[in-house]
Amino acid sequence: MTTAWQVIRFALVGAVNTGTYYGLYLLLGQWLPYLAAHVAAFALSMVGSFFLTTYVTYRTRPTWRKFLLFPLTNAANFVITTAGVYVLIEPAGVDGRYAPLLAAAAAIPVTFLVSRTIMLRPDTPRTRASLTEATTGPAGSTETSQTVTAK
Questions:
Q1: Residues 111/76, Cβ–Cβ less than 8 Å
Q2: What pTM was estimated for this model as a whole?
Q3: Residue 57 and residue 8 in contact, taking contact as beta carbons nearer than 8 Å
Q4: Which tens digits make up the pLDDT trace of 97-116?
Q5: I need a labelling partner for 30 at 20 to 30 A (CA). Which of 52, 120, 130, 132 fits?
Q6: Which residues, 6 or more positions from 14, have their beta carbon under 8 angstroms from its beta carbon?
Protein backbone atom coordinates (compact mmCIF):
# COMPACT_ATOMS: atom_id res chain seq x y z
CA MET A 1 0.00 0.00 0.00
CA THR A 2 1.54 3.25 -1.04
CA THR A 3 1.54 6.39 1.00
CA ALA A 4 -0.05 8.27 -1.91
CA TRP A 5 -3.16 6.05 -1.77
CA GLN A 6 -3.27 6.43 1.99
CA VAL A 7 -3.22 10.21 1.60
CA ILE A 8 -6.06 10.06 -0.94
CA ARG A 9 -8.16 7.80 1.28
CA PHE A 10 -7.27 9.95 4.30
CA ALA A 11 -8.55 13.01 2.45
CA LEU A 12 -11.81 11.24 1.53
CA VAL A 13 -12.34 10.01 5.10
CA GLY A 14 -11.46 13.49 6.30
CA ALA A 15 -14.09 15.01 4.02
CA VAL A 16 -16.76 12.66 5.38
CA ASN A 17 -15.64 13.30 8.95
CA THR A 18 -15.56 17.06 8.38
CA GLY A 19 -19.08 16.92 6.98
CA THR A 20 -20.24 14.93 10.00
CA TYR A 21 -18.51 17.32 12.37
CA TYR A 22 -19.85 20.38 10.56
CA GLY A 23 -23.43 19.08 10.54
CA LEU A 24 -23.21 18.35 14.26
CA TYR A 25 -21.61 21.75 14.90
CA LEU A 26 -24.43 23.57 13.11
CA LEU A 27 -27.09 21.45 14.83
CA LEU A 28 -25.63 21.83 18.32
CA GLY A 29 -24.90 25.49 17.68
CA GLN A 30 -28.64 26.15 17.78
CA TRP A 31 -28.59 25.41 21.53
CA LEU A 32 -24.95 25.79 22.64
CA PRO A 33 -22.32 28.55 22.43
CA TYR A 34 -20.01 28.08 19.45
CA LEU A 35 -17.05 26.68 21.42
CA ALA A 36 -19.26 24.16 23.27
CA ALA A 37 -20.84 23.13 19.96
CA HIS A 38 -17.37 22.75 18.46
CA VAL A 39 -16.10 20.55 21.32
CA ALA A 40 -19.20 18.33 21.36
CA ALA A 41 -19.29 17.92 17.57
CA PHE A 42 -15.57 17.17 17.53
CA ALA A 43 -15.87 14.43 20.17
CA LEU A 44 -18.89 12.78 18.54
CA SER A 45 -17.41 12.77 15.05
CA MET A 46 -14.14 11.31 16.35
CA VAL A 47 -15.71 7.90 17.00
CA GLY A 48 -16.90 7.60 13.40
CA SER A 49 -13.56 8.90 12.20
CA PHE A 50 -11.75 6.11 14.06
CA PHE A 51 -13.63 3.38 12.23
CA LEU A 52 -13.37 5.06 8.83
CA THR A 53 -9.66 5.69 9.33
CA THR A 54 -9.09 2.10 10.43
CA TYR A 55 -11.06 0.37 7.68
CA VAL A 56 -10.80 2.78 4.75
CA THR A 57 -7.58 4.75 5.09
CA TYR A 58 -5.16 2.16 6.46
CA ARG A 59 -7.13 -1.04 5.85
CA THR A 60 -6.31 -2.47 9.22
CA ARG A 61 -8.43 -3.94 11.95
CA PRO A 62 -9.69 -1.82 14.83
CA THR A 63 -8.35 -2.74 18.25
CA TRP A 64 -8.91 -1.33 21.70
CA ARG A 65 -5.31 -0.15 21.75
CA LYS A 66 -5.75 1.83 18.53
CA PHE A 67 -9.10 3.15 19.72
CA LEU A 68 -7.56 4.36 22.97
CA LEU A 69 -4.60 5.95 21.14
CA PHE A 70 -6.73 7.44 18.37
CA PRO A 71 -7.59 10.59 20.34
CA LEU A 72 -3.88 11.44 20.12
CA THR A 73 -4.35 11.78 16.38
CA ASN A 74 -6.96 14.38 17.10
CA ALA A 75 -5.12 16.19 19.89
CA ALA A 76 -3.12 18.36 17.50
CA ASN A 77 -6.18 18.68 15.28
CA PHE A 78 -8.24 19.77 18.27
CA VAL A 79 -5.72 22.39 19.38
CA ILE A 80 -5.25 23.76 15.86
CA THR A 81 -8.97 23.86 15.03
CA THR A 82 -10.05 25.22 18.42
CA ALA A 83 -7.47 28.01 18.30
CA GLY A 84 -8.37 28.60 14.66
CA VAL A 85 -12.11 28.80 15.37
CA TYR A 86 -11.49 31.29 18.17
CA VAL A 87 -9.03 33.46 16.21
CA LEU A 88 -11.17 33.44 13.08
CA ILE A 89 -14.38 34.35 14.92
CA GLU A 90 -13.18 36.73 17.65
CA PRO A 91 -10.37 38.91 16.29
CA ALA A 92 -10.90 38.25 12.57
CA GLY A 93 -14.71 38.46 12.57
CA VAL A 94 -15.24 35.45 10.31
CA ASP A 95 -18.78 34.05 10.35
CA GLY A 96 -19.03 31.22 12.90
CA ARG A 97 -20.58 28.95 10.28
CA TYR A 98 -17.42 29.01 8.15
CA ALA A 99 -14.61 29.35 10.68
CA PRO A 100 -14.43 25.60 11.53
CA LEU A 101 -13.95 24.67 7.88
CA LEU A 102 -11.05 27.08 7.50
CA ALA A 103 -9.45 25.97 10.76
CA ALA A 104 -9.75 22.29 9.81
CA ALA A 105 -7.65 22.76 6.68
CA ALA A 106 -4.64 23.81 8.77
CA ALA A 107 -4.74 20.60 10.82
CA ILE A 108 -4.79 18.04 7.99
CA PRO A 109 -1.03 17.35 7.54
CA VAL A 110 -0.36 16.95 11.26
CA THR A 111 -3.36 14.66 11.74
CA PHE A 112 -2.28 12.41 8.84
CA LEU A 113 1.22 11.89 10.21
CA VAL A 114 0.05 11.11 13.73
CA SER A 115 -2.77 8.80 12.61
CA ARG A 116 -0.47 6.90 10.27
CA THR A 117 1.96 6.29 13.11
CA ILE A 118 -0.76 4.97 15.43
CA MET A 119 -2.75 2.91 12.92
CA LEU A 120 0.21 1.15 11.33
CA ARG A 121 2.12 0.47 14.54
CA PRO A 122 2.07 -3.16 15.71
CA ASP A 123 -0.59 -3.86 18.35
CA THR A 124 1.77 -5.80 20.58
CA PRO A 125 4.83 -3.99 21.85
CA ARG A 126 8.06 -5.74 21.04
CA THR A 127 10.49 -6.16 23.88
CA ARG A 128 14.23 -5.89 23.56
CA ALA A 129 14.48 -9.69 23.99
CA SER A 130 12.02 -10.38 21.17
CA LEU A 131 13.84 -7.91 18.91
CA THR A 132 17.16 -9.59 19.64
CA GLU A 133 15.65 -13.03 19.04
CA ALA A 134 14.10 -11.89 15.77
CA THR A 135 17.49 -10.75 14.44
CA THR A 136 19.89 -13.30 15.98
CA GLY A 137 17.74 -16.32 16.76
CA PRO A 138 16.86 -17.84 20.14
CA ALA A 139 19.16 -17.15 23.09
CA GLY A 140 21.40 -14.84 21.09
CA SER A 141 22.60 -17.47 18.61
CA THR A 142 23.75 -16.30 15.22
CA GLU A 143 21.19 -18.48 13.47
CA THR A 144 19.14 -16.61 10.89
CA SER A 145 15.58 -17.14 9.84
CA GLN A 146 16.65 -18.59 6.46
CA THR A 147 15.75 -22.18 5.69
CA VAL A 148 18.76 -24.49 5.81
CA THR A 149 18.71 -27.65 3.75
CA ALA A 150 20.90 -30.66 4.45
CA LYS A 151 23.29 -31.82 1.72
A1: yes
A2: 0.61
A3: no
A4: 889 988 988 778 888 888 89
A5: 52
A6: 108, 111
